[in-house]
Amino acid sequence: MNFIRTTGANTLAFIRALGSVTLFLLQILRKSATAFARPRLTVRQVYFAGVLSVLIIAVSGLFVGMVLGLQGYTQLVKFKAESALGFMVAASLLRELGPVLAAILFASSAGGAMTSEIGLMKTTEQLEAMNVMAVDPVARVVAPRFWAGVFSMPLLASIFNMAGIAGGYLVGVQWLGLDSGTYWSQMQSNITWSYDIANGLIKSAVFGVAVTLIAVHQGFRCVPTSEGILRASTRTVVSSALTILALDFVLTAWMFAA
């Protein structure tokens, strides 16, 4: 009985949390006109969420591409197909690793920062002060951060992919001696816009919506204490990672399994 009671309570808590996030998303969409009417608010958040995350995204992508190049070359040599290294690295990054890893890194850095920032504003009663001054905090604080994350995520995933392809080139061509023309030609002849690039961008955009929504929701609904902010930031990172992996499975089954 305790197991059934615990399972039921957890299920109800999950449904309530999902409903709360959905209603919060609808509220953001209704108040997004203010963010679009004052684009400087969104541009400023794009800088904090996107530009300041470029370094970690690019460096991580470079090393992931280098690992793919090294492991791919080792495996392809066994089948005497090392000329396909460029295609293998690009396909792995564009279809799967680029959007997923970039989104997880984005959640760990920008997502946690968004939650902490909004949580601190709630703790110091800045959000209540906005309500007193007839300024909607969702329109002024939340919506610009939400759209900044949505716009930034596909760009960061693209930077991750380009850095990863460059990392594969450094290992495969500069280190292991694969022909440069073969590396690029195999990639160009086998990678397609609609199947590989566009689907990867759609994935990253969906991940951007999910991660940013979780981040701003956790910050806006957190307990206004230092411990509450810490727990909300932790929940943002954990929930975002699990959501990204779950969405990745659904999107991969829809896009590439057919």
TrEMBL record:
**InterPro entries under this entry?**
ABC_MlaE_roteobac, MlaE_Permease, Permease_MalE
Where in the cell is the protein located?
Cell inner membrane
Cell inner membrane found in the keyword field: yes
Please give the GO cellular component terms listed in this UniProt entry.
Answer: ATP-binding cassette (ABC) transporter complex
- Entry GO MF terms: phospholipid transporter activity
Pfam families the record matches: MlaE
How is this protein situated with respect to the membrane?
A: Multi-pass membrane protein
Q: In the UniProt record, does the keyword Protein biosynthesis occur?
A: no
Q: Which domain of life is it from?
A: Bacteria
- Write out the entry's keywords from A to Z: Cell inner membrane, Cell membrane, Membrane, Transmembrane, Transmembrane helix, Transport
Q: What is its main location?
A: membrane
Membrane-spanning intervals of the chain: 6-26, 46-73, 85-107, 155-177, 197-216, 237-257
UniProt lists the family membership as follows: Belongs to the MlaE permease family.
Describe the subunit structure: The complex is composed of two ATP-binding proteins (MlaF), two transmembrane proteins (MlaE), two cytoplasmic solute-binding proteins (MlaB) and six periplasmic solute-binding proteins (MlaD).
Q: What does this protein do?
A: Part of the ABC transporter complex MlaFEDB, which is involved in a phospholipid transport pathway that maintains lipid asymmetry in the outer membrane by retrograde trafficking of phospholipids from the outer membrane to the inner membrane. Probably responsible for the translocation of the substrate across the membrane.
The name of this protein is: Intermembrane phospholipid transport system permease protein MlaE
Q: Which organism is it from?
A: Neisseria animalis
